[in-house]
TrEMBL record, chain A:
Subcellular location, record wording: Cell membrane
Phylogenetic placement of the source organism: Bacteria, Bacillati, Bacillota, Bacilli, Lactobacillales
Membrane topology listed for this record: Multi-pass membrane protein
Protein name in the entry: Branched-chain amino acid ABC transporter permease
Keywords from the named record: Cell membrane, Membrane, Transmembrane, Transmembrane helix
Ranges annotated as spanning the membrane: 9-31, 90-113, 156-175, 205-228, 240-267, 274-292
InterPro entries in the record: ABC_transp_permease, LivM-like
Coiled coil: none
Organism of origin: Lactobacillus xylocopicola
Pfam families for the chain: BPD_transp_2
UniProtKB/TrEMBL annotation, chain B:
TM region positions: 12-35, 42-59, 65-84, 93-114, 140-159, 191-211, 226-254, 266-285
Main location: membrane
Species of the source: Lactobacillus xylocopicola
Protein name as catalogued: Branched-chain amino acid ABC transporter permease
Nucleus among keywords: no
Localisation: Cell membrane
Length: 317, 292
């Protein structure tokens, strides 16, 4: 415990340094609105993808419905902040969104996780997300298929930065905790884990609910920052693009997920100049990457300050 | 009564198109356990090839259908060879991401070359409406049904009666054991892709005639729904995929006709989840027990 305290302090210093670095660069005009927008998008993608990686990479459950939970967060924020236009309203809306997403994730999870696995689970979660989207598409309060406009912008890049740090810290610590080990045990071998007395359904569900709640945070941030949302933003393609980040970074590596979110975010910004060819190039990069390095950028390697301290020694767990 | 009959006819023609698509998904999943996300885009390719063939070379319906099936089959085999074969030994999620990449590539490549606007499909056959006891059937609906049923029967014959069909069934049960008894697994997988893609191409031409409209992104939603149909029917089973396709077509038409068309997608997915919860392997699927 005492040893970890030193590393936690190091991380805190690094995170604060990162904040001031971005702040200074913005002050000197190195980061303009365009790049700031890119950074915020990357941040939101990091929250989404680390949450999905907890479900896919660590509990081994294949979910294709992440965009559904993002939609819940986004719409909760949009509806609440239109009535309470203040920072407090935004914080409230994030919390309500998380609770809503958790409840819905728990309902979907209880129904599907007990009976389905693998591709069947993927297609069921995809279906569940499409049902959420279809319902949003037909409600009055959400503005139907036209979506919602003029959502008050109550979050800026520091909010996103803070929440990226918070969710990453919570998720990585969760994975390394005793509970996290239970989740990894379920991934490695469900039957063996069950034989060891682990309630597999409970932990699969826990990962799914936590993942859903983080997706809701990302949705809230994106709705408040971009200020317009519509149901078509949260379709299958959105779920898939989050999945792509996770797989490209390496299923089972949070560091890889963060790296992939940054690489894809930058690639996307550079490719903006190519117009219609953009998605073609993106697709080719994706296919070539998977053929030559199917385990993703980092496999299941994790960056940790501790490993730099004792170079070469493998961290357990 | 008349409206019900009318809706049944509409449901059958839409359902048969879903069924054709679902068959390809089902076969490919049965043999290499891959949700081939690019399957819906092969259906788009088939529709676009027929569009150009009819407009530029004045092909008739049969020629357009057959040539679109051949082109789709070739593209399916090429995609399998270039993108999926190098990943035979990789984790399944990597293959899935590759399939998504291929799907992006086909959609956006097509948008890049022909533009992303919707085009109207040439009317290769003059539409004639027949009326039986107040129920309208167009010759196009009859043609769609007849084509789909013929192709399904042909497929069933290929799978059950030919040597290649037997090889397909063998590989889907156990690829390694099949290889041991002299089945060329790679050829069999290529053949499966060719068959599935040809059916998708045919479905593309038929949907072009049914809705009179095609665009580069047309494969995405029907693609997912066709996979849902395949899962519903029990993946790997030909009658199952056909039944699943008809079921989805019926559900959609029914909810459209009672004025709930806004919720038709939700109903399709809800049915899927409910059926999976009670029959995790689909309606005609075999339940496999996990080995300890």
């Amino acid at each position: 415990m005492k040893k970890n305290w030193k590393y936690s302090l190091c991380w805190l210093v690094l995170l604060i340094a990162g904040f001031y670095l971005i702040n200074t660069l913005i002050m000197f005009g190195v980061i303009d609105d365009f790049i700031e927008n890119m950074l915020v998008t990357i941040g939101i993608n990091i929250i989404l993808a680390t949450g999905l990686n907890l479900i896919i990479g660590f509990s081994g459950q294949f979910s294709l419905g992440h965009a559904g939970f993002m939609a819940i967060g986004a719409y909760t924020t949009a509806v609440i902040t239109q009535h309470i236009t203040s920072e407090l309203g935004f914080i409230l809306s994030v919390l309500v969104g998380m609770v809503l997403a958790s409840v819905i994730a728990a309902v979907i999870g209880t129904a599907t996780f007990t009976r389905l696995k693998g591709d069947y689970l993927a297609i069921a979660t995809l279906g569940a997300a499409e049902i959420i989207r279809n319902v949003i598409n037909n409600l009055k309060i959400t503005g139907g298929s036209a979506g919602m406009f003029n959502i008050p912008q109550l979050c800026s890049w520091p909010t996103v930065y803070l929440l990226v740090c918070l969710t990453t810290i919570v998720l990585t610590n969760f994975i390394r905790s005793l509970d996290g080990r239970a989740i990894k045990a379920v991934r490695e071998d469900e039957l063996a884990a069950e034989a060891m007395g682990i309630n597999t359904t409970k932990w699969k569900l826990a990962a799914f609910v936590i993942g859903g709640a983080t997706a809701a945070i990302a949705g809230s941030l994106s709705a408040s920052y971009v200020q317009t949302i519509s149901p078509s933003n949260f379709g299958i393609m959105e779920s898939i693009s989050i999945l792509v980040i996770v797989v490209l970074g390496g299923v089972g590596s949070m560091t890889g997920t963060i790296l992939a979110a940054i690489v894809l975010g930058v690639l996307d910004t550079i490719l903006q100049n190519f117009g219609a060819l953009r998605m073609v190039i993106y697709a080719i990069v994706l296919i070539v990457m998977m053929i030559f390095k199917p385990s993703g950028l980092l496999g299941n390697w994790e960056f940790s300050l501790k490993n730099i301290g004792h170079f070469g020694r493998q961290e357990r767990g | 009564m008349q409206t019900i009959l009318q809706q049944i006819i509409n449901a059958l023609s839409l359902g048969s198109i879903y069924a054709l698509l679902a068959l390809g998904y089902s076969m490919v999943y049965g043999i290499i356990k891959l949700i081939n996300f690019a399957h819906g885009d092969i259906y788009m390719l088939g529709a676009f090839f027929a569009y150009f063939a009819i407009n530029a070379w004045h092909f008739n319906f049969l020629l357009a259908l057959l040539s679109a099936m051949v082109i789709s089959a070739i593209s399916g085999v090429v995609i399998e060879y270039l993108a999926y074969r190098p990943l035979r030994k990789s984790p399944r999620i990597a293959v899935l991401i590759t399939a998504i990449g291929v799907s992006f590539l086909l959609e956006n490549g097509m948008s890049y070359f022909v533009g992303s606007n919707a085009r109207s499909f040439p009317q290769v056959i003059e539409q004639v409406n027949y009326e039986f006891a107040g129920v309208q059937i167009s010759n196009i609906q009859l043609l769609i049904l007849a084509t789909a049923l013929t192709l399904m029967v042909l497929l069933q014959m290929i799978i059950k009666k030919t040597k290649m069909g037997r090889a397909m069934r063998a590989v889907s049960v156990d690829p390694e054991a099949a290889e041991l008894v002299g089945v060329n697994v790679n050829h069999t997988i290529s053949f499966t892709f060719a068959l599935g893609s040809a059916l998708a191409g045919a479905a593309g031409v038929l949907i072009g005639m049914y809705y009179n409209q095609i665009d580069p992104l047309m494969g995405m939603t029907p693609g997912i729904k066709a996979f849902v149909a395949a899962v519903l029917g029990g993946i790997g089973s030909v009658p199952g995929a056909a039944l699943g396709g008809f079921l989805i077509g019926t559900l959609e038409t029914f909810f459209q006709s009672i004025g709930l068309s806004a919720y038709k997608d939700a109903v399709v997915y809800l049915t899927l989840i409910v059926i999976l919860l009670f029959l995790p392997a689909g309606i005609f699927g075999k339940n496999t027990k996990e080995k300890v």
